[in-house]
């Protein structure tokens, strides 16, 4: 029998299996992974099989039965998630929204969100947010164009992405006015609906918060880039 230090290879496998259990639980508590995703049951499945392998040198039925049951439950979880995800259908527009705006959101969670909103065609002149007025809806611009203005000056342009993500969850005043400048395709969901979902679904609340924060960060980086870009002799940013 192969021996590593004072441990046999099988005993070492058992300890590694315990490590998988602990890592899975730690990542879950840190919010790095979700119980509704593939990673958590997969880590538990590997952990249970390795611990079961470690018991081979000194097998006892109570511990063995626990690992077998844990493995069966983990497999059931993986199959359930696969079936659940495979039954979800997304239109081409929804797939683009998810890929660009919600790339890490679990499919069932994204489906739940998309079911609560509406798609519309917004004409030029449509106002999505008004500076200093409470943000009541979250919008996602799939394609088109909108200008962002603050204090009467145009400060940015949006071609695709979220509008209202900074303040919609608190219904706080908008920091800028966003106005459609050419026909655009928009997905809209009310802030009341988002807050209601967040109160009843912790995974949804956490995932949405991460994605909205990501969108805000990207906009701030782009704004800083434009502000720091050198201007030509006419005063225009290069």
Question: How does this structure look, described?
Answer:
- By secondary structure, the chain is of the alpha+beta class.
- It has two domains: 3-86; 92-228, Jelly Rolls (Sandwich), CATH 2.60.120.
- The protein is 50% helix and 21% strand.
- The strands form two sheets. Strands 3, 4, 5, 6, 7 and 8 form a six-stranded antiparallel beta sheet that branches.
- Helix 1 (9-30) runs antiparallel to helix 2 and helix 2 (39-54) runs antiparallel to helix 3.
- It is elongated.
- The model is unreliable at 232-238 (pLDDT under 50).
User: What count of domains describes the coordinates?
Assistant: 2
State the share of residues found in helices, binned by percent: 40-55%
Secondary-structure-derived class: alpha+beta
CATH superfamily name of the largest domain?
Jelly Rolls
Low-confidence runs (pLDDT<50, min 5 residues)?
Answer: 232-238
Tell me the number of helical segments per DSSP (H or I, 4 or more residues long): 7
Distance between the termini: 70 Å
CATH topology of the largest domain: Jelly Rolls
Main sheet: strands, sense, barrel: 6 strands, antiparallel
Mean pLDDT: 89
The helix-strand sequence is EEHHHHHEEEEEEHH
* Number of extended strands: 8
Q: Strand portion, in percent?
A: 15-25%
Q: Which CATH architecture of the largest domain?
A: Sandwich
Q: Which overall shape is indicated by the principal axes computed on the Cα atoms?
A: elongated
Instruction: Write down the Rg.
Output: 25 Å
CATH class of the largest domain: Mainly Beta
């Amino acid at each position: 029998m192969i021996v590593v230090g004072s441990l046999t290879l099988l005993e070492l496998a058992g300890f590694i299996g315990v490590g998988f259990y602990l890592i899975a639980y730690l990542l879950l508590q840190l919010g790095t992974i979700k119980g509704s995703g593939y990673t958590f049951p997969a880590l538990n499945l590997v952990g249970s099989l390795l611990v079961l392998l470690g018991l081979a040198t000194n097998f006892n039925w109570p511990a063995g039965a626990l690992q077998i049951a844990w493995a069966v439950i983990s497999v059931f979880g993986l199959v359930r998630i696969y079936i659940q995800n495979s039954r979800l259908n997304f239109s081409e527009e929804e797939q683009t929204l998810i890929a660009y705006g919600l790339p890490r959101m679990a499919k069932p969670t994204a489906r739940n969100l998309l079911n609560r909103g509406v798609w519309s065609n917004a004409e030029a002149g449509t106002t999505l947010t008004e500076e200093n007025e409470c943000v009541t809806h979250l919008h996602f611009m799939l394609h088109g164009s909108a200008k962002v203005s603050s204090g009467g000056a145009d400060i940015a342009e949006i071609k695709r992405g979220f509008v209202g993500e900074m303040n919609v969850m608190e219904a706080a005043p908008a920091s800028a006015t966003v106005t459609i400048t050419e026909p655009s395709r928009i997905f809209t969901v009310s802030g009341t609906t988002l807050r209601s979902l967040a109160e009843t679904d912790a995974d949804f609340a956490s995932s949405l918060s991460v994605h909205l924060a990501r969108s805000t960060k990207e906009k701030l980086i782009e704004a800083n880039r434009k502000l720091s870009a050198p201007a030509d002799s006419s005063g225009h940013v290069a």
